[in-house]
Amino acid sequence: MIPYGKQHISQEDIEAVVGALQSDFLTQGPKIREFEEAFAHYIGSTYAVAVANGTAALHLCALALNVQEGDRVITTPITFAASANCIKYCGGEIVFADIVPGTYTLDIHAVRKLLENAPKGYYRGIIPVDFSGYPVNLEAFRELADQHNLWIIEDACHAPGGYFMDSREERQQCGNGKFAELAIFSFHPVKHIAAGEGGMITTNDPELYQRLLTLRTHGITRDASTFQNDKNLAFASHQYSSDQYPGWYMEMQELGYNYRLTDFQAALGLSQLKRAEEGVKRRIEIARRYDEAFAALGIVKQKRDDNHQNAFHLYVVEIEDRYKLYEYLRDRNIYTQVHYIPLHLMPYYQQFGWKQGDFPVAESYYQRCLSLPMYPTLKKEEQDYVIQCIKEFLGE
Q: Residue 53 to residues 105, 134, 165: CA-CA distances in angstroms?
């Protein structure tokens, strides 16, 4: 069986997890901080906060940015449901905008039109998605967001290691989170870094960082500099005159969640992180072989250009008779996938008035898209078999 995505667990990964299991901490231990610091260094951010999964990361971002009932946030319909659901969790409203043909990412022109046709303050933020590994040009989105006093959450689950070239004369590589208040990542098994489950939030804002740490753990803090109750209440007695709070004391200062990552998941993530750059290079090699094989077949693939490094979480093509090809490959033990059914056509979101025909580019893409096998351990002979079967289907 050849799946569309697959984790790679090495002996080093296994030893790292066993080491964590044999340590004194299964959760809330030193591996969490070690993973956070290593990931922040890899991404190039000041802070990183490890959480239970990518969905938890998105939810915490919305909470940290104080999304409230009635707040309107713009995102793409071509994404996993969590990109939009995180706003609904907080009582906010999701407004979809169409995608760019070729890149399948949020169309900045469509977003600009929404903003210009609305009164000032009508929207709170934007959630662009680095779809399939193709990084959105967040420099342009940042400029637009600043014009309208909006924040940005970058959903980078598909694209750690991806980058775009900025507009400065000397042109520099801009990776995840550089132009966003917050960026989020997933460690689901088919992602670049697998931890079973897990997620990460990166930021350069110290206030957002501290709030995320509190929200991640029930809204509870042990930071004495932020305590609101006096020491008498902390000691439950008036007989103490200590300058410090007792060691057991903590405060729940707002409603938070248990969105923590375990130490053995962090150990696995740390071990996988060491191979992250190697994994992206391998994905690019696999994509290049697909490109070369399909060049003369009329298969439409995601846009490529010298200004972007696609991290290739997915290798997406557009093809006529998508369902027939899906079944043809499945009969030959090749398991492809469709990413994604447009969110605005999901029954949950249709209840808010979204309907077929609202976003013609996204809907046209959905009619034809198919994700082919893409993961670093895909063998040459396996990829050759996938290519051979597609050629046979097309009568080549």
A: 22, 21, 29
Residue-wise DSSP of 68-137: -TT-EEEE-SSS-THHHHHHHHTT-EEEE--B-TTT-SB-HHHHHHHHHTS-TTS--EEE-B-GGG----
Which residues touch 258 (CB under 8 Å, ≥6 apart)? 52, 217, 218
Question: What percentage of the chain reaches a pLDDT higher than 70?
Answer: 99
pTM: 0.97
Identify the three-state secondary structure at position 198: coil
pLDDT digits (tens, 9 = 90+) for 169-206: 667 889 999 999 999 999 999 999 999 999 999 999 99
- From CA 243, how far away is CA 240, in angstroms rounded? 9
Pairing of strands 125-127, 163-165: unpaired
199 and 51 Cβ atoms separated by less than 8 Å? yes
Q: Domains plus CATH for the chain?
A: 11-220+255-273 (3.40.640.10), 276-393 (3.90.1150.10)
Among residues 4, 125, 83, 87, which one has the least CA distance to residue 343?
83
The mean pLDDT value for 350-368 works out to: 98
φ, ψ for residue 315 (rounded to 5)? Answer: -115, 105
How many CB atoms within 10 Å of residue 171? 10
Among residues 317, 321, 311, the alpha carbon closest in space to that of 295 is found at 317
